[in-house]
Design brief:
Chains A, B: This is TetR/AcrR family transcriptional regulator. Chains A, B: InterPro entries: Homeodomain-like_sf, HTH-type_TetR-like_transc_reg, HTH_TetR, Tet_transcr_reg_TetR-rel_C_sf. Chains A, B: Keywords: DNA-binding, Transcription, Transcription regulation. Chains A, B: GO terms for molecular function: DNA-binding transcription factor activity; transcription cis-regulatory region binding. The structure is a homodimer of 228-residue chains. The first copy, chain A, folds into two domains: 47 residues, Orthogonal Bundle (Arc Repressor Mutant, subunit A); 160 residues. Chain A is mainly alpha-helical and 228 residues long. The first copy, chain A, is globular. Chain A contains eight helices and no strands. At the A-B interface, α5, α6, α7 and α8 of A face α5, α6, α7 and α8 of B.
Chain lengths: 228, 228
Amino acid sequence: MPQRPRRSQDERSDETRTALHRATIRLLLDRGYSRFTTADAAAAAGVSRGALTHHFASKEDLVVRSVAQDLAGVTEGLRVFLAEGRGRRRGPDELVDHLWALMAGGLFYVTMEYLPEARHNAPFRERLLPVVRDFHAALDALWCSVSDAHDLDPAEAQVTLNATLCLMRGMVAQSVLKPDESYFAAMLDHWKAHLRALFARSAGAGDIPGPSHAGRHHSPPVPNPEVP
Amino acid sequence: MPQRPRRSQDERSDETRTALHRATIRLLLDRGYSRFTTADAAAAAGVSRGALTHHFASKEDLVVRSVAQDLAGVTEGLRVFLAEGRGRRRGPDELVDHLWALMAGGLFYVTMEYLPEARHNAPFRERLLPVVRDFHAALDALWCSVSDAHDLDPAEAQVTLNATLCLMRGMVAQSVLKPDESYFAAMLDHWKAHLRALFARSAGAGDIPGPSHAGRHHSPPVPNPEVP
C-alpha cells in the first residue's frame, strides 16, 4: 500500500484545532456551557491537554474560536444552498424549511448556551461581538441575493428575513419547555404564508412555489430536548 | 402612634418567601443562573440561610417557585392591560409595545438564564414544564380575548400572537450580541404592520389604531447588555 504522505506541522496543527472546534460545539450542544471543561474537549477530540493549551489560552478562547469556525461553516452552507436553487430562485417555503432545520437542528441550541455567559462576562462578550458581526454581515449579503433574485424591495426583504431568524430563535428557545411539534408547525406555516405574500407582491403570484404536496408529512424537525 | 399589628406566622412566612422569590429573579437577571447561589438569595432578601432552607429545598426549588410566582404576576399584568384598554379594544401597536417592554425589560433575559439548565437537568425541566404550561394556558386565554374583541379568526389570531412572542424571544436573545436599537425597531415596525393587516382584514381598517404620532420617539426599549 502507498504510504500516507507525512503531514507537515501546520497540517497537524490545523487538524488538532479543527478536532477541538468540533468537539467544543458538540459538547456545548450535549452538555452545555456550564458543564463543559477544556479537559472534556481534549478527551472528546482525542488530543492531549498540552496540545489544547498550546492552541487555546482558555475555555473562553476555545469557545469563541469554535463558534467562529462553526458560523463560518454555516455561512458557507447557506451560500451553497442559495446558489444551488434550481434555476435562479428558492421559494420562501424552501428557505423557511432549510433555515428551521439549521436552527432547530443544533445551531441555536449552541447559541443559547453561550448567550447567558456573554451577558455576564464582558471580556467574553467583547470577543464574541466581532464573530457574530461577521455572521450577520454574511447573512445580510445572502438576504440581498434573495431580494435580488426575487425582485423584492431590498429594505423590506432584509427586515423580513432578519425577522425570520428571530422568530426561529424564539421558537427554538420555547421548544426547550414546550415540546409540541404541531404548535411550531403551525407557526412555520403562518410564516411561510407571510413570506409568500411578500414574494408575491413583487412577482406574478404564479411564480412563487407554494407548499409542497407532502404538506405536514414534511413537517420540520422539532427539537427533542433530550437529544438535540 | 398606633402599634403595627403583630403579624401571624403565616404572614411572616409569606413575606419571607416573597422576598426570596423577588431576590431570585433579580439575581438571575443581574448575575445569571450559573453565578447565583442560595446564599446570595438569602443575603439579597435579608433573610437567614435557615429561613431559606426552611422554605426551599434547593437552588432548583427556589428558582422553579420564583419563576412560577413571576409568571403569575406577568399573567395578571397582561390581563389588567387588556381589560384596561380604552373602550373594549387594544390596537396591535399598543399590544406590541407592551409585550416588547415586558420581554426586553427583563422577562426573557431571566428565561434565557434557566433554559440551558432546563435542557441539561431533567428533574429541573420536569418541574418547570407545568409552570410554563400554566403560563401558556393563560396566554391562550388572553389571545382568545384579543381575537374576540377584534372579531379575528381565533385560530389565526392564536398562531399570530404566539408568533409575536416567539419573534420577541428571538429578538431579545439576539440583542445580547447585537446591541443595535434601530435594527430591532425596524423589526417591531414590520411586525406591527403585519398585525395591523391581520386586524384590518376582520374589521373596518379605519377602526384599527395606527402608529402613534410620536413614532420613533416612542421607540421600544432596547435592552442594554450591561444593565438589563
